[in-house]
């Protein structure tokens, strides 16, 4: 795995984990009963983006390390997903 591939894998992993963490423990203004004029009732009551970004980074590093280990070890390869048999056979030449 190249450095660029590792960075892209981390970015994708981070954003996927972020979108999972973002709605957790969300209290909307409508739930709290105090809607600020000009905002929808579904808007968050307080900002916790920084805290959620830190939590996301922690979990993303763990998930990324697992994915990177699986990819670099060769346990799962692209050929494992070739169900139609469209990839050419593996050649013995380097």
Explain briefly what this protein structure is.
The chain has 94 residues and is mainly α. The protein has helices spanning 3-21, 29-32, 49-73. The model has no long low-confidence stretch (mean pLDDT 91).
Q: Name the shape in a single word.
A: elongated
- Compute the gyration radius: what is it? 21 Å
* Run of helices and strands: HHH
* Content-based structural category: mainly alpha
- Count of helical regions: 3
How many E-type strands? 0
Described by strand count, sense and barrel closure, the largest sheet is: none
Cα distance spanning the termini: 18 Å
Mean pLDDT figure: 91
Low-confidence stretches: none
What percentage of residues falls in helices of 4 or more residues? Answer: 40-55%
Strand coverage percent:
under 5%
